[in-house]
Amino acid sequence: MSDNPYATSFGGQMSGAVNYGTEAAADLIKDTTTATFAQDVIEASRQQPVLVDFWAPWCGPCKQLTPIIEKVVKEAGGRVKLVKMNIDDHPSIAGQLGIQSIPAVIAFVGGRPADGFMGALPESQVRDFIDKVAGPADADHKAEIEAILEEAKTLLGQHDIGGAADLFGAILQADPENAAALAGMAQCMIAAGQLDNARQILASAPEEVAKDPAIAAVQKQLEQIDEARKLGDPQALEQALAANPDDHASRLNLAKIRNVEGNREAAADHLLAIMKRDRTFEDDAARRELLQFFEVWGPKDPATIAARRKLSSILFS
Fold it and tell me: Thioredoxin domain: from which residue to which, for each copy (predicted)?
């Protein structure tokens, strides 16, 4: 059973999990020796910063620092690794680095010592030190979340509803008020025909989040779907247009239906055809409807880009 509150069933349970660059605690913290130092520290630091904690069993301040630095490294979620070296058993590396008192922590980045501190620092200062050598956590997570959102949107565009919902849902577990992920999850529900679930997702958004353009666009999409359901049989509308190409009311309704069916090119073309024939129809209704389509599709959607070019040629030719 998934503990993902956004999990649903599209032919199977969705239980996505996003790692955000985290690693198991066993991989983040380890002991090293003189023989393994090059691999554990020098080579590893070419991939991510490695903190080396030089300590000894008899050192009181070392015992104070150990639980603090281990906690902060674990909370850093894989931004750094911690390697501990007992200088009683392995004194040569500390001697080569000129370490004369412990605890001493040296940060290796790109295979070389980059920074360090001595003594049992409080938790806040250890956290600041990690942010200094590895970058702030918020910046890292924001970039990773943005990358995951883009991947989820790509999957949804490829009609991989389950895969997209897995990623959107995992982001929402970490950040329940992420507007883009909420909107994306609602779009997955719409694509799966689960309109009531989509409405519930949008209704769950806090007031400030609900004002986000991504949420507003999905809400508009649901309104368009509800409207299109009342516009009649598309085949009958096609027949009406075949008999009278200037039946702009039928063409406008057909455009709305094609839009909610996902045939964006056809929807845009019908509206553009009305504009070419009669810009005054219902107070420029075709252009206003097309702009609402753009709002839902988004500015980067290929259908938006293509239709906007055609619209410009009509308006400015």
Answer: 18-135
* Active-site residue set: 59, 62
Dihedral angle sign, alpha carbons of residues 14, 197, 298, 178: negative
Could you read off the pLDDT of 88-142 as tens digits, one per residue? 999 999 999 888 899 999 999 999 998 899 999 998 999 899 988 887 766 556 7
Alpha carbon 167 to its chain centroid, in Å, reads: 8
Question: Residue 91: which domain range?
Answer: 29-135
Q: Which residue has the tokens 């989509």?
A: 198
253, 288 contact by CB (below 8 A):
no
Report helix, strand or coil for 32.
coil
Same domain, 152 and 225: yes
pLDDT, one tens digit per residue, over 2-21 is 343 444 444 333 334 444 44
Of 151, 155, 172, give the one whose Cα is nearest residue 163. Answer: 155
Q: What's the farthest any 2 CA atoms get from each other in the chain?
A: 95
